[in-house]
Task: structure prediction
Amino acid sequence: MKTILSFFLLLLTQTQQSLTYTPLSDHSLKHLIPPSIDPTTSPTHPDPDFDPVTGALLSPILIPRVPGTPNHARVQEHFTSFIRTHLDPSWTVEWHNTTSTTPTTGARQVPFQNLILRRDPPWIRERGAEGEGEVARLTLAAHYDSLYLPEGFVGAVDSAVPCALLLFVAQAVDRALTRRWESMSMGGVGEGSLEEEKGVQILLLDGEEAWERWSDEDSLYGSRALAEAWEKTRYEVGSSFATPLEAISLFVLLDLLGGPEPNIPSYFPTTHWAYQNLAQIEERFRKLGVLETKPRKPFLAEREKEAVQFFRGYVQDDHVPFMQRGVHVLHIIPTPFPPVWHTMDDDGAHLDVPTIRDWARIMTAFVAEWMDLEGYLPAVEAGKPESRYHEKEEL
Ligand SMILES: *[C@@H]1O[C@H](CO)[C@@H](O)[C@H](O)[C@H]1NC(C)=O
Ligand SMILES: [Zn+2]
Result:
């Protein structure tokens, strides 16, 4: 009975979420990303976030980072110091650490450490344990470990860039989330109403790569452990969601992004609606002339895909342990894979920074629409606050 009830609530929340999904205005889309990454202001300047050599977000990740090595720890430290210095202190940072043997490392227990970065509405946090099971969380994921071999492999698209993108998105929506939740708390809106209990979490997953040869046992070390743990963790009896796994409204997995001309299929009929929202964002951005790339076809070209056309199967990746447990997944990974995949050429030099910046715009807009941030995004037009944004602030 409990299970059925929770399942019903889950469905209810999801229906409501798709109903309240609010597209951003043209104005917001045009001004979404602050000028520091606007190429029109400095077309030849190295990107402050995503330049492979100097970019503050990306370049520290572009080193070999095999689990259990000092470099791996350096990348973890980069994540936590970015979070500490760039994000609102209300984000919670949680590690999920396990160990496992691998076919390559014999009896040695290799550590696998997932980083979970989460932001829920403030009234949820105030309720403590009772609030825990009430929030449906948009969940964005990427893996930060790199292949064991070939030695020196950097894994720029696999998946340093997706990790940097997720940190970028967290920062890009951070203030708008604060503003929206502040104005909702003040107006007494939202609190207790199911549709407003929306949070966002970012999973930086470890141990995605196989050490020797891809198999069920040799791959997905971090995500397998996390999905299993979240299935067993139970919220308080009577919560809207029974487990953290059920509280995932959508699992968006980014992988192999950062190369030119990506072709991202829609893999799953159950989340095709979310794919369509994402594709619509890309199309609107292109029409508005905001995106820098001019690909032969859109990154997300399968908006019109019909139900009967979903036969192609899917790519084995960190979403699998979650999907097997009933989580809805949007997998943002190109098919075919970038040509540099699992070669020494998957490095900073083979990245296409305009493509990365366009992904930053598309993903930021997707999260902003999901979290209903229209009207709360900082305006950047000539350094002048947009009137609407100003009104909200004075509420
Ligand atoms: C989990 O791993 C992280 C990263 O190495 C470390 O900072 C943290 O202290 C570990 N947590 C526990 C409980 O061992
Ligand atoms: Zn890989």
Residues 156-187 form the longest helix (32 residues).
